[in-house]
Amino acid sequence: MPLPTPPPVGTAMLPPRTYAGKVVIVTGGGTGLGKAMAVEFARLGAGIAVASRKAEHRENGVQAVAALGARAIGVELDVRNDDAVASTFDRIEEELGPADVLINNAAGNFPSQAVKMSANAWRSVVDIVLNGTFLCSAEFARRAIARTAPGAILNIGATYSWTGGPGTAHSAAAKAGVMNLTQSLAVEWAPNGIRVNCLAPGLFPHDDLPPVLLARQNPEADCKRIPGGRVGQPHELGWAATYLCSPYAAYLTGHTMVLDGANWLRRGLAMPDFVPIDEQFP
Ligand code: NAP
Description:
Blueprint: E1 23-27, H1 32-43, E2 47-52, H2 55-66, E3 72-76, H3 82-95, E4 101-104, H4 119-146, E5 151-156, H5 160-163, H6 169-189, E6 194-201, H7 211-214, H8 219-225, H9 234-244, E7 256-259, H10 277-280
Parallel strand pairs: 1-2, 1-4, 2-3, 4-5, 5-6, 6-7
The structure holds NADP nicotinamide-adenine-dinucleotide phosphate.
NADP nicotinamide-adenine-dinucleotide phosphate is lined by residues 27-28, 30-34, 52-54, 57, 77-80, 105-109, 128, 156, 158, 201, 203-204, 208-209.
GO molecular function: trans-2-enoyl-CoA reductase (NADPH) activity
Function: Participates in chain elongation of fatty acids. Catalyzes the reduction of trans-2-enoyl-CoAs of varying chain lengths from 6:1 to 16:1, having maximum activity with 10:1 CoA. Has no 2,4-dienoyl-CoA reductase activity.
Subcellular location: Peroxisome
């Protein structure tokens, strides 16, 4: 029997007004898991800033939030650009007010063999995932500290932070850096009332994945590969994010929570046949 399916989308997990009057920034909040998290914060009363590069993505996120009757704005941002990060936070403050929560979700998703990976591909993923997370977090904290306000930062990690993984040398190394950064920043900013946590999703398929990953989706096979017998549903990740940033987690900081149906722990004596990288990502 697989792990039970969660209650459906729309079910309240925290009290309905948990984020009333709060401002939440979600980088990459217009697609996939970022959008699913933005929607769960909005359902609990937050105003949402969807920050990413592409207008059509931002518009998707804003529409999903607005459909719940919540306030949302789309703000253009490339998280690699420190000047743009500062001016984006200015714009969010002008339109929604100062941010209470930052979700560092933006990432580059393109598997590649290490020997075929260009320097540009390596730099680009590390720049978005690790440098972008640092730049947005530091901007958030400087502002919260200046106005003596508490805050919560949630970094979106990945379980290959611990294991590494074929085809993901760039992303796994960057996510490992993000997990480590989570711990440093949690200690530095706890005296300022700012919590920093990390949420590592397992397999959470969604329709916004890039074509190369969409093509690899095979729900039946995926379910058999996961000890929990099923993939994650994006709103489950949204619930975890809203809990980790909420007052109910006020003493929780520097932690990485894994939500993956025990998938990353399954290594054991009965392993499937090894598939070389050339065959996985030709
Ligand atoms: P996704 O749909 O591809 O989302 C990535 C988002 O990042 C996009 O909205 C994109 O928006 C934004 N982005 C990319 N580069 C950016 C940049 N330079 N500046 C600002 N925004 C940028 O992927 P996803 O599956 O939802 O993944 C969300 C997070 O979960 C990622 O951190 C990913 O590593 C993690 N994760 C996902 C899974 C999964 O099963 N889906 C598993 C493990 C971890 P623009 O193109 O508009 O910039």
